[in-house]
Design a protein that fits this description.
With about 600 residues, the chain is mainly beta. It is about 5% helix and about 35% strand. It is built from 6 helices and 40 strands. The termini are far apart. The relative contact order is 0.14.
Length: about 600
């Protein structure tokens, strides 16, 4: 405990010594709409741009301005950054970082390729993706597959410092984009399918020195939870809130990885992020004393943490005692929303479990918890009565609970599948309409748990999945929806043939951009979802569209390169329908519409 306290004091002292320079540098660049300075657009995670040169009246005239081959044929998630005249991007493994000169025909200013053991690909759960670089104070930060966190000189590509966050031989990998706040680089870890105990870590931006680490489960001093001050639905978390919800020492291989996008509120000095699935996927093996369900905190949780100390301000568990692999890592989006005539500072999260949650971002008060996917059947609702002892918890339908069915037996017809009603691909909030624009998936599954033993560095899954379209999905297993946050209702929906595995971009021009697994970049009217533009790129799109201004002209850019969990059959050459945890069979027709590729396509008006 003394060691942990000392680290917290060091972190606090460091923040006072260096001030908020990186914070202000990032904010200044993000506030200039000509840039795309953060993977999520800005700290709020809204993925909204005030640029409006391209608008709903002229977007149909978009043409390809230029393209770039990345040289890598795996899933391209994330997207590029633009700071001034320079674009920065990173490829999937081997994680080549590039800087392009936008003022001189996209000349490659420099390339950096980290030295990595290619065996790391074997322990990457769902393709060898990377969700993007970040920028601050003349540095580019990249989190590589082998969990290295590397700082590069943004002008030269020279390596400034490098730290090993974890060890792939234990099943730990790096796929998430870091977040730079104040003088800290904050990064998580992947590996929930290998029994890795998840965490986030804050490193010093200038040296790579580790300032604090917060695990997802374990003793209070490990998870940086204050028993009296950390709130859970308005009440103190209590002593050992995690340890008391695990059976014995299972928490030591408990999962709860952190690999999604994060958000930051400078006024509250809080970062927000979600944790992933508990290990193993077999819930019977994770049962508590007497073979009863037990929450397994803090997997599947939205955390709000103080940036300087890492201590949690509040926590909320979306899916206690997970039985479906409904990772809670999906992005938080900060917005000021009106409730009962008053503006509330909120954070909204569209979970894989099919429910959309909105909390007060200062206190964690639950304001909305409604289904954004009508197919969702594993739970009927979230208890919203504050006087109910189950307040905030899902009402689980036993018919669709693998724990009730048991090991080596199949629970059929669960919706959504483990892919989620939405996966890691980020939604967008438009300040123009006050609506959220959400990429969705309409897939269900059969789930058969089996007994599995833990071995360091080996898969620790323990379930066989079969995935297929939702009952009434027909030929539309995905789509885009517009969501009214305060009302918790869908305003309109636009179906798509496959799951929309691309992020969404909204702009002041009244447009929502997104990509499809077939490879189309599409633009729709934010008001009603009317399609205004589409063009097919060289490969399926699982990247996130972004926009920037250069030499007085607005551009929209997106990666194409099919892969990720939805496209793992193409990315990894898999043919067995059960491979990819059932995704191969669920997307068997995808090969009829696209093939492997790795490119950046940039659009502009003529």
């Amino acid at each position: 405990m003394k060691k942990r306290l000392c680290l917290a004091i060091i972190a606090l002292a460091a923040s006072f010594a260096t001030g908020a320079r990186a914070n202000q540098d990032v904010i200044a660049h993000a506030n200039d709409p000509a840039n795309w300075a953060i993977q999520s657009g800005d700290y709020s995670g809204q993925r909204y741009s005030t640029l409006d040169q391209i608008n709903k009246d002229n977007v149909g005239e978009l043409k390809v301005a230029w393209t770039l081959s990345t040289g890598v044929l795996r899933g391209h998630e994330g997207g590029p950054l633009v700071i001034g005249n320079t674009m920065y991007l990173v490829t999937p493994f081997p994680n080549v970082v590039m800087a392009l000169d936008l003022a001189h025909d996209q000349k490659i200013l420099w390339k950096y390729q980290p030295k990595q053991d290619p065996s790391v690909i074997a322990v990457m759960c769902c393709d060898s993706v990377n969700r993007g670089v970040q920028y601050a104070e003349g540095k580019i930060l990249v989190h590589t597959a082998d969990t290295s966190l590397i700082a590069l000189d943004a002008k030269t590509g020279m390596e400034l410092w490098k730290v090993a966050d974890d060890d792939p031989k234990k099943g730990a990998t790096g796929t998430g984009a870091p977040l730079i706040v104040k003088d800290k680089v904050i990064v998580g870890v992947s590996g929930g399918e290998f029994g890795v105990r998840g965490y986030i870590t804050a490193y010093d931006l200038n040296s790579g020195y580790k300032l604090w680490r917060a695990y997802s489960m374990g003793p209070d001093e490990d998870i940086l939870v204050d028993p009296e001050k950390t709130l859970v639905l308005g009440k103190p978390a209590g002593k050992d809130s995690s340890l008391t919800t695990w059976n014995g020492d299972q928490w030591k291989i408990g999962g709860g990885p952190v690999w999604g996008y994060m958000a930051y509120d400078p006024e509250l000095n809080l970062i927000y992020y979600g944790t992933g699935n508990p290990s193993t996927w077999n819930p019977v093996q994770r049962a508590g004393p007497g073979g009863k369900p037990i929450d397994q905190k803090w997997a599947m949780t939205m955390f709000a943490r103080d940036v300087d100390t890492g201590v949690a301000r509040w926590a909320y568990q979306m899916t206690p005692f997970d039985q479906w692999d409904y990772d809670g890592i999906n992005e938080p989006i900060l917005a000021d929303l009106e409730f009962n005539g008053f503006n509330r500072k909120t954070v909204t999260h569209f979970d894989r479990n099919g429910f959309a949650y909105t909390w007060d971002r200062a206190t964690g008060e639950l304001l909305v918890a409604e289904k954004f996917d009508s197919d969702t059947n594993w739970a009927t609702a979230i208890v919203m009565d504050k006087n109910d002892p189950n307040y905030g918890r899902p009402i689980v339908a036993k018919k669709f609970a693998p724990f009730e069915t048991g090991t080596d037996d199949t629970t059929k017809g669960i919706c959504p599948s483990s892919l989620g009603s939405k996966n890691q691909q980020p939604a967008s909030y438009s300040r123009l309409t006050g609506l959220f624009y959400v990429p969705v998936t309409r897939m269900c599954m059969d789930y058969e748990p089996f007994k599995v033993s833990y071995t360091v560095g080996q898969p620790y899954v323990g379930a066989t999945l079969t995935m297929y379209p939702a009952p009434d999905a027909k030929d539309a297993t995905g789509g885009l929806i517009a969501w009214d946050g305060p009302k918790g209702k869908i305003v309109w929906s636009k179906p798509e043939r496959f799951a929309v595995w691309s992020g969404v971009l909204t702009t002041a021009g009244g447009i929502a951009f997104y990509g499809t697994l077939e490879g189309y970049l599409k633009a729709v009217d934010q008001r009603d979802g009317k399609e205004l533009f589409k063009l097919k790129t060289p490969s399926g799109i699982i990247g996130n569209p972004m926009t920037y201004m250069h030499a007085g002209k607005q551009y929209v850019a997106v990666f194409s390169g099919v892969g990720g969990w939805a496209g793992i059959s193409l990315a990894a050459g898999l043919t067995n329908p059960d491979d990819g945890s059932g995704a191969v069979g669920g997307f068997a027709k995808l090969a009829d519409y696209t093939s492997l590729g790795g490119s950046l396509t940039v659009f502009a008006l003529p």
